[in-house]
Design brief:
Elements: E1 12-14, E2 18-21, H1 24-35, H2 40-54, E3 64-70, E4 77-82, H3 92-97, H4 116-127, H5 132-135, H6 137-145, E5 147-148, H7 151-159, H8 161-165, H9 168-174, E6 186-187, H10 190-202, H11 205-208, H12 211-222, H13 229-233, E7 238-240, E8 243-247, E9 250-254, H14 261-272, H15 284-304, H16 315-318, H17 321-329, E10 349-357, E11 363-372, E12 378-379, E13 386-387, E14 416-421, E15 424-432, H18 436-449, H19 455-460, E16 464-467, E17 472-475, H20 481-489, E18 494-495, E19 503-509, E20 516-520, E21 527-530
Parallel strand pairs: 17-18
Antiparallel strand pairs: 1-20, 2-10, 2-21, 3-4, 3-11, 4-7, 5-6, 8-9, 9-14, 10-11, 12-13, 14-15, 15-19, 16-17, 19-20
Helix pairs in contact: 1-2, 2-6, 6-10, 14-15, 14-17, 14-18, 15-20
């Protein structure tokens, strides 16, 4: 339990149902759906649609979605992969012929076919109790009638002001006064409201066919993109078989590749072999072990994780005890490893994570993203759809498992999580922050299960991340200076992140009492609310 004399927040407690998101308006939308009789899946979709309006730098209908759903609170987890794919004309040979050696963010080639709307539509039809059109009404209302810019969202606008100003459509939508909006200013997105209304009336076809698809495809083609109307009309997400690993008597479930959930499970298997360090969670000795485990696991991620339809992803080997032992054995408890390669991967993406548990104990763990802040920063002119830059997860080396190919999905960083025990779901959780997410899952769960933090404290803890892009450890300013000095002496190199590392939400079912306990990350503008 936290020191009640210090700033902070306590976990939320409730008997019936609960939602936790990174924005208060989104959480409230979810709770409203629950009170009207909707289930956890309904509430999560309503919430994420709102976030695509009020937190536009993090998510939206131009992005992708993954979901884990535990119906009735059992351990039979449904997993859905709603990540988008490359256009049918995207071949490494085409890029080579154009002299393109790298997929850059602010180009049409970074935009994959968005998968979120298809995922929302399919999940609601298969597992929801309300119509998608009804669930989209709160988002339509905020886009049409306006919403106030919140604190964290304002900083995201400011951080992306320069790139948004380079795009006429994006600048008109997000910089209406020629500058980033400030806290409390009211924004309206009438074009996005009209697009959401079309989806509400027509379902997925209102997005993947007709005027909206024509607007997006025409815009991308005008910039040299390979996208076609056929690519949009034919896109479908898919149900997949979850993967899992045991940790401290619990089973942790993740979506399989092309996502990096396997990396989170690898990290847990490595850390399970270490006893909690007597010095505590933030001791140099413990932090060193987590950093080194992260560096090794992310090395494997970048070597092997890809779309399993196009590459052999050795999931069973990656999650084997023998491999975990091998990685753990490579860690020197006193010194940082020096022989890990650097990788070229995208940096600092943005995402939203939502968790909802309803009165029947259906548990929904849902994550939605446009990747970096405001995605590719490109906005379709008539529909108001901000387009993701997930194509940056591809490489153009034909020998690499993540080489671009027609219809192929890139390496994905977004990963919803679910924890079960003794045949029952006990927690729905997720951590935001792009590359950090797999590492963040490990940090959250080890804080909870190894060091006895409550659900909010586990989200609050100071964060660090061995970023594979820069080869250094990002570390938040809340870390004690003497700890940083001790780790520097062990060979680690540190940098401050450009913004707080990630975010997260979680809801736990207390199996003894049946009560719900939730937390929401202070690095964002959200909250957990139950009743």
């Amino acid at each position: 339990m936290r020191d009640l004399e210090r700033p902070g927040r306590s976990p939320a407690h409730a008997p019936t149902a609960m939602a936790a998101t990174s924005h208060t308006l989104s959480t409230q939308a979810a709770v409203d759906v629950l009170r009207r009789g909707g289930n956890a899946l309904d509430a999560a979709i309503a919430a994420v649609a709102v976030q695509g309006v009020v937190e536009p730098g993090s998510t939206g209908i131009g992005g992708d979605c993954f979901c884990l759903f535990a119906k009735g609170g059992t351990d039979e987890i449904v997993a859905f992969n709603g990540s988008g794919s490359a256009p049918s004309g995207a071949t490494p040979e085409w890029f080579a012929a154009q002299g393109i050696t790298k997929i850059e963010r602010q180009t049409p080639h970074s935009v994959t076919i968005p998968g979120a709307v298809d995922a929302w539509d399919r999940l609601v039809r298969d597992h929801g109790t309300m119509a998608l059109g009804e669930l989209l009404q709160p988002a339509i209302g905020y886009a049409r009638d306006g919403f106030p810019v919140s604190s964290r969202v304002s900083t995201d606008f400011a951080r992306n002001e320069a790139i948004l100003s380079k795009e006429a459509n994006s600048a008109a939508m997000f910089l209406p006064e020629g500058r980033a909006p400030k806290v409390g200013e009211v924004l309206h997105f009438p074009k996005l409201a009209a697009t959401l209304s079309r989806i509400a009336e027509e379902g997925r076809d209102g997005y993947y066919k007709g005027a909206v698809a024509e607007d997006i495809v025409g815009f991308l083609q005008s910039r040299g993109g390979l996208h076609s109307l056929e690519d949009f009309a034919g896109f479908e997400g898919e149900y997949v078989t979850p993967i899992s690993a045991n940790f401290r008597g619990h089973t942790v479930h993740q979506c399989p590749p092309n996502g990096q959930g396997v990396t989170a499970l690898m990290l847990l298997k490595i850390m399970e072999g270490f006893d909690p360090v007597p010095g505590g969670l933030l001791s140099p000795e413990r932090i060193h072990l987590e950093i080194e485990a992260g560096r090794l696991a992310y090395r494997d991620r970048n070597l092997f994780v890809a779309d399993p339809k196009y590459a052999d992803v050795p999931v069973e080997w990656l999650l084997s005890s023998a491999h975990a032992d091998e990685l753990r054995g490579a860690i020197d408890p006193a010194r940082a490893l020096t022989d890990l390669p650097l990788f070229t991967v995208p940096k600092h993406p943005s995402t939203v994570y939502i968790t909802v548990i309803d009165k029947d104990r259906n548990c929904c763990s849902l994550i939605n993203t446009i990747y970096e802040g405001f995605g590719s920063a490109q906005t379709a002119p008539e529909s108001g759809v901000v387009l993701q830059n997930r194509g940056m997860g591809f490489v153009l080396d034909p020998d690499h498992p993540n080489c671009i190919a027609p219809g192929k999905r890139p390496l994905h960083t977004i990963i919803p999580g679910m924890v079960t025990k003794d045949g029952k779901a006990v927690m729905s959780y997720g951590v935001m922050g792009g590359q950090y997410q797999a590492f963040g899952h490990m940090q959250f769960l080890t804080g909870l299960m190894d060091y006895g933090l409550d659900i909010q404290e586990a989200l609050d803890r100071p964060r660090f991340f061995p970023d594979p892009y820069i080869g250094k450890v990002e570390i938040e300013g809340t870390m004690p200076s003497e700890t940083v000095a001790a780790l520097t002496a062990m060979g680690h190199q540190f940098v401050r992140p450009g913004s707080p590392i990630g975010g997260g939400q979680a809801i736990m079912i207390d199996q003894a009492t049946g009560m719900l306990v939730g937390g929401s990350d202070p690095r964002k503008d959200g909250c957990a609310i139950g009743y």
